[in-house]
Amino acid sequence: MVKRKWLAGLLSILLVASLALAGCGSTENAQQPGNQSSGGDAKPSEPQVLNLNINSEPPSLLPTKATDSTSGLVLIHVMEGLTRLGEDGEPKPGIAEKWDISDDGLTYTFHLRKDAKWSDGQPVTAHDFEYAWKKLLDPNSAADYAYQLYYLKNGQKYNEGKAKADDVGVKALDDHTLQVTLEKPTPYFLSLTAFYALFPIPKHVDEKNPNWHKEASTYVSNGPFVLAEWVHDSKIVLKKNPNYWAANEVKLEQINMAMVNDENTEYQMFETGQLDVASPPTDLTKQLIDEGKAKVSPYFGTYYLVFNTKDKILSNAKIRKALALAIDRKLLVENVLQGGQVPALGFVPPGAPGVQDDFRKEQGDLFKDNDVETAKKLLQEGLQELGLKKLPPIEYKFNTNQGHQKIAEAIQQMWKQNLGIEVKLSNEEWKVYLDSIDQGKFQVGRMGWIGDYIDAMTFMDLFVTGGGNNYPKWSNKKYDELIEKAKSSNDQAERTKAMQEAEKILIDEMPIVPIYFYTRVYMEKPYVKGAVRNVIMETDYSRAWIEGKQ
Amino acid sequence: MLRYILKRLGWMLLTLWVIITLTFILMHSIPGDPFSQDGKKYPEPILKNLRAKYHLDEPLPVQYVLYLKNLLMLDLGPSIKSDTRTVNDVIADGFPVSFQLGLAAVALALVVGILLGVLAALRHGSWLDNAATAVAVVGISVPSFVMAPLLQKYFGLKWKLLPVAQWGSFEHLILPAFALSLGPLAVIARLTRSSMLDVLGQDYIRTAKAKGLSQPATVFRHALRNALMPVITYLGPLLAAILTGTFVIEKIFAIPGLGKYFVESIINRDYPMIMGTTIFYSAILVVMMLLVDLAYTLVDPRIKLASKED
After folding, report:
1. Distance, in angstroms, between A234 CA and closest chain B CA?
2. How many whole angstroms separate alpha carbon B168 and alpha carbon B171?
3. Helix or strand or coil: residue A394?
4. Cβ–Cβ below 8 Å for B285 and A435
5. pTM, whole model, 2 decimals?
6. In angstroms, rounded to a whole number, what is the distance separating the alpha carbons of residues A103 and A108?
7. What is the least distance, in Å, from the CA of A248 to any CA of chain B?
8. Å from B274 to nearest chain A CA?
9. Other C-beta atoms within 10 Å of B114: how many?
10. Cβ contact, residue pair B83, A62, below 8 Å
11. How does strand A235-240 pair with strand A254-258?
């Protein structure tokens, strides 16, 4: 008599919705009145409350375990590292008041502020940093971002279990002096100290209660704000931290962080005034930019195609180059993407320091966009080298996502029109796709890279022989040498030139094809003032204020 | 009766074990691992430490036995994605929210759906029947992810009657519950209407009428009981699906329920979360199936569960 109906097709329901995970992104703006005061008014009369959307539950608010932008956004407001990045991406004094760097660039001595305190009133000491950094590297912590401290002497060895904690190059000389020894000169090390993985941990709290960072009631922080409320999957409320060393510079009394992960809902909440900052929905992005309601800020990332250099046809550099030149990036950016992206005619995005100026600006464009004539010529030469008359159809793989699909279709069209090549498109779920690309089961694929720190090296060392993210499986001896040279140099001019030369080799060989440089598009109510945006970090509202809302 | 329930419970445990085992095998056979977040591949020592932490470096059978051992203590393990909450925490936080929303939606669907169905059957062929059919067609064919933004736009943005999204008060419940109930409401209305029509044409109804019983009494005491059988059958899987949370509605209305974890755990390859949510869902489903079978005997005394001995 038992009636048994079908067991629900769980997976199918789930997969349909996975499409919706396309457009994440955070909220940016650019205007900073200068670090000084805002013209005399010590206490603004308006309620200083800011309403943000952080999209989802932050997976971890323990600095050593956080790995994502949501956690990062919360962390830069409740915590502070040795330095804090300014709008230009330059590190400014944070908990460290000043620092000395030895001439060989291997020893950093940080002098910590004596008035820096945790929210429980205890002083922030050099021991808290030493403790946190060793914890990040401890193999038992299994921290994802441990490699951000492989720069420390014996950092990697300790993480691999081949050295002891005491061997690691970080030491608190006294309560307010932190000495750091590096393996190699790392000119961008200072800006790394502004990254949340390198924030301190309150040693006195962590030793007593290792779960302190899981709930608002036990959370202790040293930044501009304290974690006042944390309702999981629902909201976070930050309140101004009176114990912060620069509390007089912090004007916001409260930041409400909603967790809304639907772009249309986010937009509607912005329209009703429940949010003060939002990302525009994909369909409306162009319109809102054109109307001046949404703004575009640069982001330190590059969207690129990967060629499998182990493939019979794509092992030929001329064929690869022909394909790269036969793409009209300007058309793609203006008509398909429509989010203010910049056509990429080099691999390193704007924002990285060069010898004097910007790395990208100094290097200039390394090839011509939509150079169909040269592409046709190269294709013929390449075919001859391979002994072929006509190029067989090639497969272009991407991870299942509407945005990537549009780009793939446009490029398919361009290659057909410009070179007469048949392109088959195929897509796979993100992690399956990563697995395929990693194992070389592809001909052409798509990839994106966001810099880990503000320096060209975060892009340039990707394609050294045997590199974990060297998906084209490309190898070039000269390139490897140049990267090695840049990595062991402490001279900005010398290392920049080595990297610029390496980038030329990369573009000349085209194991990858730069398509565009990323941007972040955001909407911000006009009464929100003083948010700090740079090309790499989450938007910093620690010195922002509300003016003219009423 | 007791014997029957005990026997069913045994079968339920067996069913769950099969589901657990199958999920475990399937989950580990899909490519990709939990540790490749943005397409950035970590250096090998990092991956080694991570695998060791979550015991993913052990052979699969060892992992399987380990998992079952923990499961016996009702420990669903840590979430690989979240450093803050275990799988148990996530379910404990999210399920009450999803349950509340789901219950409101099902209640709405049942009350309105049955009412519409009965009215449509009684006024068979009239404008009322046509109107009910129209409601049902809209309910079945307009997906909730279309209906939800429309509701938000008019009730939230234009008329400012109800909050656009988020969770907390009774007002927050109205729009998502309505959006969620529309599909089931339509199905229930159709099921009720057709089986009601069927029942109304049967002899015993004619007898009741002939006895001089009033129409409401005939309908509610005699006809509806039998007409509800298909609705009850439909209710089992519906309750399991709706009470454990729905991804789309919870995402659109930013509701801190359990729904998204079914989807995101798979996207993230968060193995313990995949297992945890699947087991939880399956457990609810088999319990609902049992309740449905028990409900049959309440509605129709002719059905005797324990009658068939074997």
Report:
1. 5
2. 8
3. strand
4. no
5. 0.89
6. 10
7. 32
8. 11
9. 21
10. yes
11. antiparallel
The minimum CA-CA distance between B214 and chain A, rounded to whole Å, is 34
Q: What is the C-alpha separation between A435 and A471, in angstroms, rounded?
A: 11
Say how many CB pairs under 8 Å bridge A and B.
180
Whether residues A11 and B281 touch (CB distance < 8 A) is answered with no
User: With an 8 Å Cβ cutoff, is B262 touching chain A?
Assistant: yes
Q: Phi/psi at A58 (nearest 5 deg)? A: -70, 125
Per-residue pLDDT tens digits for B202-234: 888 888 888 888 888 888 888 888 889 999 999
Q: Which residue of B has its CA nearest to A20?
A: B248
Find the DSSP H helices in A116-165. Answer: 126-137, 155-159
H or E element, residue A81: none
Q: Which two tokens stand for residue A414?
A: 């361009």
Query: DSSP characters for B217-285?
Result: HIIIIIIHHHHTHHHHHHHHHHHHHHHT--HHHHHHTT--SSHHHHHHHHHHT-HHHHHHHHHHHHHHH
Q: Which position has the token pair 């920049």?
A: A496
Q: pLDDT tens for residues A247-302?
A: 999 999 999 999 999 999 999 999 999 999 999 999 999 999 999 999 999 999 99
The percent helix, strand, coil of chain A (3-state, each to 5) is 35, 20, 45
Window 184-223 of B, Cβ < 8 Å to A: none
Residue B201 scores a pLDDT above 90: no
**Minimum-distance CB partner of B293 among A2, A7, A141:** A2
C-beta atoms of B247 and A258 within 8 A = no
The minimal CB distance from B152 to the residues A142, A235, A265 is found for A265
Residue A41 CB partners (closer than 8 Å, separation 6+): none
Amino acid at B224: L
Can you list the residues of chain A whose pLDDT is less than 70? 1-44
B31 interface with A at CB cutoff 8 Å: yes
ipTM for the complex shown: 0.89
B56 at interface of A, judged by CB pairs closer than 8 A:
no
Hey, what are A73's tokens?
A: 């956004």
What's the rounded mean pLDDT across residues B73-77? 95
**Strand A295-307 and strand A394-399: pairing?**
unpaired
* Number of other CB atoms surrounding residue A207 within 10 Å: 11
Query: Is residue B1 pLDDT above 90, yes or no?
Result: no
